[in-house]
Design goal:
The chain has one domain: Ribonucleotide Reductase, subunit A. It contains 11 helices and 7 strands. It is mainly alpha-helical. Strands 2-1-7 form a 3-stranded antiparallel sheet. Helices cover 44% and strands 7% of the residues. Bound molecules: benzoyl coenzyme A. Benzoyl coenzyme A binds next to α2, α5 and α8. Benzoyl coenzyme A (BYC) binds next to α2, α5 and α8.
């Protein structure tokens, strides 16, 4: 059973919108609000330029996307769900082996809606955070990457809005409207999760965000792709296809900034005198975004997470690959390091189900370590002697069991005075921010790059780096 892709429709889709007039009308009513939001809070000032963009046109392996020049407001934001798996069964939690649901079970309605709203809220949030970045892009190649990420985050919002409209009636429509009413950093009506309220006004933040925060997106989407609620599983599965490019943009971007600094060091120059980013400064940005992104996993000991797992809504990373011994996760414990009020760390065993956020976070941290290793291998070749490291998972946390305690990046519990004295060595200081801002000069000639970033190893869609990725004239 393969779905029919309708690319001619006002809203391209493979969910049979044409045959569901009520839903179609509701979504077509939401569409102008989305377009208004894009004009007002999406990328500023580049909406009349031709950008070489990838557009999702189906869900088949290999040929799912089309590349061409398009003006961003004309981007064809569509609704695409991965192909259904016939006879799919819930493969974890209390309802193991039961058929998956195509409609929302009444008793899970609130919990599911909350998960979908939280996921959906991050998508427009990130576009808002990045709206001014186009003005300082270090190359046309990078400008295109930014806009590619932005339009696809817009499509991911559509993916969640589709679920809300289809499965949650009037409440869902209200939630879809609210997605465009909360705004990143708004004092009265901010985005739900804190990492999405920090402004991203320079490219060092952008590349760290796409490395670490988009990677949280990968892990959250992957665990929702295990869901017993089949429409959510199929939607998030397809979102992951696009998400891979966002993370690559980040990993390559940080790697290219590091490589440029390393090249200058090898030439006997000081990156700080050349408008490039010193490696120790880059490390502080990495520290900030890695720790802020760990907070997005929620508390390590969480009854919400236990219930989401037990009810079959949210599984573990790659649960469906059968890599966990017990798909019910019963009768097992997770050893959690917990700080005590008298200044010690003790190991406490908690039921595995309550540790589902921590289990997902562990997989995320291992992935981030592989990325840092790749950056290190690259700069090692230039002989800088510098090594990036990731701070301990307890460091600088504002959610979960470590919030409210002070740790050194090594994971050692420290007192407030030590933190006050040393935190500017660990996190970007105002001086760092001013310096990074001073490096953000726009470069708009095809094939040229700002002095703080090396060219990419290859261009987008097999085009060369000097391709005219955005037509600015
Ligand atoms: N900030 O039981 P707890 C992406 C709240 S990124 C503020 O410890 P739970 C993307 C929590 O809501 C991926 N509040 O954790 C990336 C709860 O409130 P209530 C986004 C927080 O609920 C880049 C209370 O604290 N997707 O896609 O198990 C660009 C206790 O919570 C935070 C998702 O997040 C926080 N950081 O887990 C574009 C997936 N953490 O109920 C896109 C959907 C916790 O007591 N969301 N709280 O009022 C979820 O699975 C869960 O909501 C969370 C939290 C993992 C976020």
């Amino acid at each position: 059973m393969t779905s029919i892709v309708d690319l001619e429709a006002k809203i391209p889709n493979n969910v049979g919108l044409r045959d569901n007039k009520r839903l179609l009308m509701a979504l077509e009513k939401w569409q102008p609000a989305f377009k208004r939001w894009w004009q007002e809070l999406g990328p500023s000032d580049f909406n009349n330029k031709d950008v070489y963009l990838r557009t999702a046109i189906g869900v088949g392996q290999g040929g799912w996307a089309h590349f061409d020049y398009v003006k961003m407001p004309d981007y064809r934001w569509g609704i695409f769900l991965a192909e259904p798996v016939p006879e799919r069964k819930i493969h974890f939690g209390d309802q193991l082996g039961q058929p998956v649901w195509s409609e929302v079970p009444g008793e899970l309605r609130n919990r599911l809606r909350r998960l979908i709203v939280t996921q959906g809220d991050t998508e427009p949030a990130s576009v808002e955070q990045q709206r001014l970045l186009g003005h300082t892009a270090p190359s046309l190649y990078d400008l295109r990457s930014l806009f590619q990420v932005n339009v696809e985050e817009g499509r991911h919002l559509w993916a969640m809005v589709y679920l809300l409209h289809t499965h949650f009636g009037g409440d869902g429509r209200d939630e879809a409207d609210a997605m465009l009413e909360r705004h990143s950093g708004d004092a009265d009506n901010p985005r739900i999760l804190q990492a999405f309220n920090y402004p991203i006004d320079n490219w060092v933040d952008f590349f760290c965000f796409t490395t670490f925060t988009d990677r949280d997106g990968k892990y959250q989407l992957a665990s929702l792709a295990e869901s017993g609620f089949d429409p959510l599983a199929r939607t998030t599965q397809f979102m992951l296809t696009e998400e891979a490019y966002h993370m690559q943009t980040g990993e390559n971007g940080v790697g290219r900034i590091a490589r440029r600094a390393a090249e200058l060091i090898k030439e006997g120059k000081d990156p700080a005198q050349e408008g490039a980013i010193p490696l120790a400064m880059l490390q502080r940005y990495i520290n900030h975004w890695f720790s802020a992104s760990m907070d997005l996993f929620g508390g390590e000991d969480s009854t919400n997470a236990a219930e989401a797992f037990a009810s079959g809504l949210k599984g573990r990373y790659r649960e469906g690959d059968g890599i966990y011994k017990d798909p019910k996760a019963l009768d097992q414990n997770y050893s959690l390091q917990v700080p005590t009020d008298d200044g010690r760390i003790e190991t406490r065993d908690i039921p595995l189900r309550r540790a589902m956020n921590a289990v997902l976070l562990d997989a995320y941290i291992a992935d981030c370590k592989r990325i840092a290793d790749r950056w290190n291998r690259d700069i090692d070749k230039l002989g800088t002697g510098f090594r990036f490291s990731l701070p301990d998972h307890k460091w600088n946390r504002h959610q979960g069991v470590y919030a409210g305690f002070r740790f050194a990046p090594s994971g050692e519990l420290i007192d407030e005075a030590t933190w006050t004295h040393q935190h500017t060595e660990w996190l970007p200081s105002q001086q760092d921010r001013d310096y990074v801002k001073s490096c953000m000069q726009a470069v708009r000639e095809p094939g040229k790059f700002a002095n703080y970033i090396a060219p990419p190893a290859q261009g987008a869609n097999n085009q060369p780096p000097e391709f005219e990725y955005v037509k600015l004239r």
